[in-house]
Specification:
Blueprint lengths: L2 H10 L15 H17 L3 H14 L3 E2 L11 E6 L3 E6 L9 E7 L4 E12 L2 E9 L12 E8 L5 E6 L19 H4 L3 H4 L6 E5 L11 H14 L9 E7 L4 E3 L5 E4 L2 H15 L8 E7 L16 H12 L4 H7 L1 E5 L2 E2 L21 E4 L3 E2 L10 H13 L4 E3 L9 E2 L3 H5 L4 E6 L1 E2 L7 E4 H16 L1
Parallel strand pairs: 1-2, 4-13, 4-14, 14-20, 15-21, 16-18
Antiparallel strand pairs: 2-3, 3-13, 5-6, 5-10, 6-9, 7-8, 7-10, 11-12, 12-22, 16-20, 17-19
Helix pairs in contact: 2-12, 3-7, 7-12
This protein binds manganese (II) ion (MN) (2 copies).
Amino acid sequence: MSDAIKELKKQLLSGKKNGYDRVKPEELSAMEAYCTDYKAYLDAGKTERLCAAESIRLAEAQGYKPYVRGMDVKCGDKLYVCNRGKAVLLAHIGRKSLAEGAQIAAAHIDSPRLDLKPNPLYEESELAYFKTHYYGGVRKYQWVTIPLELHGVVALKDGSSVVVNIGGDAGDPRMVITDLLPHLGAEQSQKPLGTAFSGETLNLLLGSRPIGDEEDTGRVKLAVMQILNEKYGITEDDFTSAELEAVPAMDAVDIGLDRSMIGAYGHDDRVCGYAALRALLDLEETPEKTAVCILADKEEIGSDGVTGMKSAAFDTFMEDLCAAQDVPLRVCFEKSFCLSADVSAAYDPHYADVYEKRNAAFLNYGVGLCKYTGARGKAGASDAGAETVAYVRRVFDEADVLWQLVELGKVDGGGGGTVAAYMANRNIETLDAGVPVLSMHAPFEVVSKLDCYETYKGVKAIYQA
Ligand code: MN
Ligand code: MN
């Protein structure tokens, strides 16, 4: 190739490069330190309630105070509200009025899991089980024969609630869902993957040791209930008003001999939740516009409900802040920008045919910007405007953020959504951006450390823009 052609190629064509060929070497230790903190955040927050509590703990350590309606809202204030223990909204009040808009990052901290049913406890063939109802998109076969732990609350009629943690601490017993042995799996193995495992077989094995006399019945179930009663003071009826979630009993670990990746439960979307939170907490000075971090619940089941992104809880928080500055909420929203910080599907060479390689997200290519999500011709997507994408390109490039423009998969290959549409529906300019994930929604997902760190840098740049 002649030099002229080489030069023309460099000028006119986009040369995608691996992030390791572009990252500044001096940033690698900061990346590693960030990822160490992120792994601890994951281990401390395996459910939305635990993650919300851990997020608040980190925020309070950086001077964030609970916002109470009617409080003054001044430049430099660091405020948060917790929505019913399951979602957190934080704001660092900027130098400019909220009439100039806010710079928002919205991530979700709920992840696919197995919730206990309202009447969960039963005994069958002298074994005790909890029945579950899966939450979010799970491939059921991935959840059997792995150790599981249980977290959540039992709310009592007197208004108090009991925090449950079975398996979360070192040395605790764990639970498991059993599976058929291959020797007897001939018939099951003929079934399509989606139907071979029924939701009604996703039952947690709890105990096998009976109490009482041999002529008694239900002795294993009673023994389990006795243990729960001794530990938590609850009876079987109390499950009626409980939220108990079975999640993988695995801590976050480095993956790969080069330690370039992190394997863990719940990267979707705590990897972006942590980036959004940490970037806010790390702001060295008061931002020009108010920076807002949203850690939402219920994204995995459609963002409905009082703690989901469709809830007026967000509008109420913003309206309260705006009211303190005599700014109408609608004026703030139309000037605001939101990075909908959620994960995308990383290209997996084993399943190349579901991706469109020219528009797929690649591990180590940086934070993935996603103009649209949706399915069947972008249905359900907010489809960010070209100007919005250009704005983020500029902000990211000026801050040396490594990014890639991505799609979820092949046209008509499936689809998915994020909270982006619910933010955009509020008249807030919104663009999806997040970390590419391998094995998304599996009990153990994989991300690259470089992409985690670039996402953090990207969110920080947005807050500071
Ligand atoms: Mn997500
Ligand atoms: Mn998801």
